[in-house]
Amino acid sequence: MVLIAAGSPLDWHESKQYLDWVKRAGIEQFVHFYKKITTEKKSKWMEILRWGDELEGILVEFDHENKRVKLVLESSEKLKEMNDRGYGNIFTLEFGKFMIECVPQKPYKGLINHINTVESNMRERRTLLAEILKPNQYYLWYPTFPLLGCPNITIPDSRADFESNQENSMSVFISDDVIYSSHPRFRTLAKNIRKRRGSKVAINIPVFKDKNTPLPFKQPNIPEWDDGDSKEHALVDHVYGDAMAFGMGSCALQITFQAQSAEEACKLYDQLAILTPILMALSASTPIFNGYLIDEDCRWNIIAQSVDDRNPEERGETSQKQGDIGVIPKSRYSSIDMYISEKHQCFNDTNVPTNEPLRQHMLQQGIPENIANHVAHLFIRDPLAIYKEMVTGKAAEPENYISHTNHFENINSTNWQSMRFKLPPPDSNIGWRVEFRSLDVQATEFENAAFAGFIVLLSRVILTYDLNLLIPMSKLEENFANASKRNAVLDGKFWFVSSLKCEDGKCCYFMGPDSSMGNELEQEKAGAQSSEEASKKCCCDKMDINTIMNGSESGFKGLIPMLKDYLNGMEDIDYLTRCSLSSYFSLLSKRASGELLTWASWMRKFVQDHPEYKQDSVVTEKMTYDLMWRYTRIVTGQLEDDSILFKLKNSSQSDVSKAQTVAQDRLEGCECNDD
Length: 675
Prior knowledge:
This protein has about 675 residues and is α+β, with helices and mostly antiparallel strands. It is about 40% helix and about 10% strand. The longest helix is centred in the N-terminal third of the chain and has 21 residues, at about 20-40.
């Protein structure tokens, strides 16, 4: 979810005069609240685990007579109706008019048994939305609509043409009509990203080269009215897109956790970042882009290129002007660039640009160097949507803006990285949080709950046993580059720690502070002459995802067996929760081993086996209809397909028992449930 502010957004040329001011004001806000939060007494509510999920989905309508499926551009109307029904805090807007995001009404709590409420909660959200849909309409958790960018795919019809697309995206494929228009933020982002970049965004994803794919492949459907920009930037043997909607029109599952402190949030941020490429490959669900099979399985690179606002100097294509930040290696939508925790700085072995004046200002104000480095790196980016009311008049006076975080979040929330470090909101009892952001959304609540439960449990193990999964940042970058590749879940090799077990074998599978590996890393950190030297000594090997998740005969335990052992040591887990967790582990284990397909592999196989497919990489309207109708029937329980899901036994409950609620209240130090 992004920062949604009210006001009059400024055009890019109007925004330029305020860019540095907004950055400085954002840093002043961060410094103010960092000091305030770290010195004030925290509420008990802020010190315990609260967490939640965000599920993004699309609205589609099936025309069974003509064998077509189209996107429904009615999210504004649907959101209004849900708000009128009292569900406005569950459903919210997203970039596309065909998209709706849904979140839990309340955050989940910290007991393991609360994980068993997630699947039921997700199902309830989908059911509530289904109640207001028209016949043959469905709300689907589907990462990227296969024909997005092709003509005749929306209801009502929206067509890209020269006149209608001059204002925002200038796309030759997607009309600006698909962008959510009831709030100005999204169209402003699309327009200002293009203007800051100096050209349209250029998305190039390798085409899947089948038997009859024309080679060299050159995007054949660029219309004649293109101004030449698309034809210039469309790469050979790649499927091309030219609009923010290609990326921000895709859907994800995101998980946010509350931490007890900034230090704990930093630790979770760093450790969970190691899992972002692994679980992205495991959740892969995007093998089709702009009507073609592609040689990748995830949505990530599509989005990264769709919001890449770097100008030619920042992309390294022309010489730098004096005073510029320099070359910026990646899009503002990317994998993380550095570990944050002070203890993990020795693993930062890549060059990361920072806004040095703002970094020095934070250091002078007493912000820890590791935190200052992270924020200063985020602030190499410009704010993309500035509202006139926030930078003029009394709102621009320090005494008025210092008590808000709007300028800080303007930049923090548009650094779309694989993990996000979140400042506690002003005037709330919400604490420091981290967000896990790399997952393709899954088709069913069962799958989404499985990924969410796995990540939550792993976060508990990390904190309880001081588990250390860190690898050098350069190796994490390599992992992320490999995670989107076709069939990476089975064919890919990823850097991972060599062992989850202490060398003396006395502390199970956990590298706690007393373990020999933990002590070795501490000694390396203390004695290293440079981060490069420390990173070279890191104990990690290349493994496939099956080994990482399930372990191997050679002795690597595996994350799923580790979590099972963690749960076996706990007594306060009810039977139904154990059943659900067992099913979740089984799903992830079978996906990792290849016994069950990822959705990307399932979709690719469906297309390649379709009687209309000509082995030329082209995905037609009829193929898309058949694909998505089968997908929908699986989601709604009308059809079983044991290549992608085993027969489900639902053990999820809408809430935990009263006894467990009392236990939670005692954990929080409360006399009553204070939701």
